[in-house]
Amino acid sequence: MIAALIVAAGRGLRAQSFSIYPKQYAKIAGESILARTLRIFLDHAMIDLVQVIIHPDDLELYNASLPDDQNNLCPPLYGGATRQESTLLGLEGLQLAKPDIVLIHDAARPLVKSHTISAVITALDYADGAIVAQPLMDTLKRAHPSSCKIASTIDRTNLWRAQTPQAFEFTKILSAHRHASNVDNINFPDDASVAEFAGLHVILVENNEVNFKITTAEDFSLAERYLNSPIPKIRVGQGYDVHKFETGDHVWLCGVQIPHDKSLKGHSDADVAMHALADAIYGALGDGDIGYHFPPSDKRWWRATSDIFLRHAVKRLVKRGGHLINVDVTIICETPKINAYRDTMRTKIASTLEIEISRVAIKATTTETLGFTGRREGIAALALATAAVP
Asked: Homologous superfamily of 2-228 in CATH?
C-alpha cells in the first residue's frame, strides 16, 4: 500500500501579502492551493490513500477547500508547532493503515506532475528513500553576516535543490522521525535530512518540471500565470499513404508536378506525399484522416489539388490554438527520382503550411526492388508532424 502525507499545518506568515488565510487555502485560478495538491494525489493510480495534516484552527477552511472527489481521503489529523512535529504526527496516524511506502509532500506545491510522483515511487526499488530535486544552475555566493559583501563563491558541482514529494519505506522513515524528535539543537529542514541522519540510503530523482513551493506573493502570481496560460503539449502524428500507377505522363508529389511515364491513380490529384502529411497533422490532433474529412464519395474533391487537404488540417490545428513545430516526409519509390525537385517540394510545403522551410524535411528512399514499390507498381509515403497543442 502507498500513502501520501500532505503537510498543510503551516501558518504561512510570508503569504499574508496575498491572502488573509494560510496560503494553502488561498485560491489560484479559482481553486484553493490545497485542493489542487490533493487532487493530483487522489487521482494518481499508484496512491491508495491520502492523509492531510492541518492546523487545529483550520478545520473549517479545510472542509471548504476539499475537491469534489474525496475517495481514499482520510479524515484530517492535527499537526504540531513545527513541520517536523506535524510530519511525525501524520506518520503516527498512518500506522493503522500499515502502508509500505509513504510520500511526504508540501501542500503549497500544487504544480507537481503525476509522472513525477510515479518516478519517485519507482526509485524506491533502489533505496530506502527518494526525493524530487533539481540540479543547481546558478552560481552561489556566500555573504558576510553583517553586509551584502561577498565572502566566498561556493562550488555548485553536485548541489541540488530539494523538493517534494519525498518517498520512503514507511517503517524506516517513521523510526527515523521518532529518533529525530529526541535530538536537540539540530534543525532538520526536510524529511530527507531526517532520513540521512538515521543512516538511510536516500537518492535524488531529477525533475525538470515546474514544482516550486508557493511562499511569497511573487510565487502566487507566477502560479496564477502558469495555470491561466495553457502550456502547449507536444504531440506527434504519423501518416501513411499509397497510390498505384496508371497511364499518364506526370505525378504530383508535395505539390510539385514531376514528369514521369505514368501517373498516380486517385480521386484527387493523388499526391501521396501530401496525403500522408495531412493525415500526420490530423493524427497529432486525434482528428480522423483525409477520408473522414474529404470522403472519396464526394464529387467535390474529384481531381482536387491536395494542398486543400493540407491547409484544412493546419486550419484545424490553429483553431485548437496549436502550431506546427516541424514536418518530415519520406517518399518511397524506385521512380521517379526526386532529388532535383526536393528544394521546390520543401518550398511548396512550407508555403502551404505557412512555416519556415527549415521546419520541412523531405527524403526519398527505395525498397531495393522489393515489394510493390520495388516492382514500380506505385508510390508510398510516410510522414510525421510534430505540433504544440494547448
From this structure: Spore Coat Polysaccharide Biosynthesis Protein SpsA; Chain A (3.90.550.10)
